Amino acid sequence: MMTKLILAGAILISLLSCKNEKEYPWNPDWDNKEQIEVPDTLDKPDDPAADIKKKPRYVWIDAAANFMDYANSEEKISEDMKKLAEIGFTDVIVDVRPSVSGVLFKSATEEPLKKIAAWKNGNFIWIKRTADFDYLQAFIDAGHKAGIRVNAAMNTFTGGCIEPYGLGNTGMLFSHPERKGWATVANTSTGLENVMDLDESGTRFLNPANDEVVEYLLDLIGELASYKELDGIVLDRCRYDDHGLGSDFSNISKEKFEKHIGKKIERFPDDLFEPGSSQLSSPVTEIQKKWLEFRAKNIHDFIEKASAKAHEVNPSIRFGAYVGGWYSSYYESGVNWASPKYDPYHEGHYSWATPEYKNYGYADHCDFMFIGAYAGTENIWGSGEWTMQGFCKKARNLFKGDVPFAGGPDIGNGTGFENGGCGNLIKDITEACINESDGLFIFDLCHIKMFDYWNNFRNAFKTFQ
Q1: Quick one: how far is CA 181 from the chain centroid?
Q2: CB pairs under 8 A, 24+ apart, for 342-350?
Q3: Which of 58, 293, 317, 328 is 20 to 30 A off residue 83, Cα-Cα?
């Protein structure tokens, strides 16, 4: 049941990201303006409201959701960078490797992205890129001209997608069948299956325990970092796949796990999880706890290597990651995004944590991070998870000062946001998130455009200046 819910949720978010009658695509990317000065590291001020203008304000630009506008038009890129600068955003995060794979930057490692599925005139079709300009460089040039910093985001452990509505498949795992062994292996009710053999729609993920996958992705990160004018790199979907605890059960993961715990597993994966199970036992078994620790270690080790790679190629570039703010259940994705100073085992709240789990918190390997404070319109204020303010408050405690971060909502897909008309909430959203964070993070630019929130953000930012 959990697997089906995760997959259904992922597909639904993708479908709803920017679908409307204005022909926006789907999926979950300015002139002689004075350079905006934003400090690289920001301490939480005594009076956050008074100091808000010094905090960076980031807007995400999803590749698929904005492909119709930007894939073939440098003019539209320039136009929107100017508008973002004028209303007070300081940074953009441009998605240059969507979950379907294929890149929007110069690469000798992966093929360029040529098409993305989208809604147009009530139909689900392919939107094609026919232009040959450097997509990432166009954002860098236009953004810097406007005084905006440009950060490149890449979906990390993703390699393709079977599109819904029978549109077909796309991505490097499909165009390179010899890489099938790079894909994750799911624990299904009928046994272990490579996700490339499943006929369900959705994203196909790469195995974080596979050394060939790791080297491939490090090459991509190195190529991104070679853009000397690029301000930062942000990893998205740097995690295990949408099957959650049902992944990954490949032979590679089995062998590495056995090495991690120092003994053989007689019945794999049955000694960890029954076939088709995607939930922890109650109480959580010791072997399951070690499995969660092992998965977190794999992601931690990759982040450490990726950070080193980016800084080796470009010492001045900032490196970081986006994560969902729901730390209490993020172990399902194999990720400990907290500081290693934060110990969930001794906190006593998390029955799934081992004493060693804290060792695989990776925040200290990042220069900046982004928290998805993805609560609904009725839950802006609060102290706990699933409120925007609460997500940011908890993140500050989890990071322990290791890394500056920006938190904020999805203003298009969250409960209450779907049909727009939420401009009157932008001021509260801004205040709730930026006061508890080192900056503001907004997903996604397509929603600002679709629902015409330009002036709402302009006015919200002016309020705190």
Answers
A1: 24
A2: 342/397, 342/398, 342/399, 342/400
A3: 317
**Residue 319, beta-bridge partner list:** 233
The whole-angstrom separation of Cα 354 and Cα 339 is: 15
Compute the residue count for the chain: 465
Q: How far is CA 248 from CA 196, 373, 381, in A?
A: 13, 27, 37
Whether the CB-CB separation of 250 and 184 falls below 8 Å is answered with yes
Query: Beta 318-324 vs 368-372: how paired, if at all?
Result: parallel
- Report the alpha-carbon distance of residue 232 to residue 318 in Å, rounded: 4
* 305 neighbors 218 (Cβ within 8 angstroms): yes
CA 167 – CA 115 distance, rounded (Å): 12
Q: How far is CA 320 from CA 368, 370, 402, in A?
A: 5, 8, 12
The owner of tokens 């979906």 is: 155
Taking only the tens place, the pLDDT of each residue in 164-194 is 999 999 999 999 999 999 999 999 999 999 9
Q: What are phi and psi of 116, to 5 degrees?
A: -140, 145
Angle (nearest 5°) at CA 209 between 327 and 15:
55
Give the Cα separation of 186 and 199 in Å (integer).
13
Question: Considering the entire predicted model, what is its pTM?
Answer: 0.91
Cα–Cα distance list, 155 to 158, 246, 430 (Å): 6, 20, 26
What are the pLDDT digits (tens) for 109-130?
999 999 999 887 788 899 999 9
Structure tokens at 291: 């499995």
Contact yes or no for 54/439 (Cβ under 8 A): no
Backbone phi and psi for residue 119, each to the nearest 5 degrees, phi listed first: -90, 135
Q: Record the tokens describing residue 88, joined without a space.
A: 């007070």
Beta bridge partners of 407: 371, 440
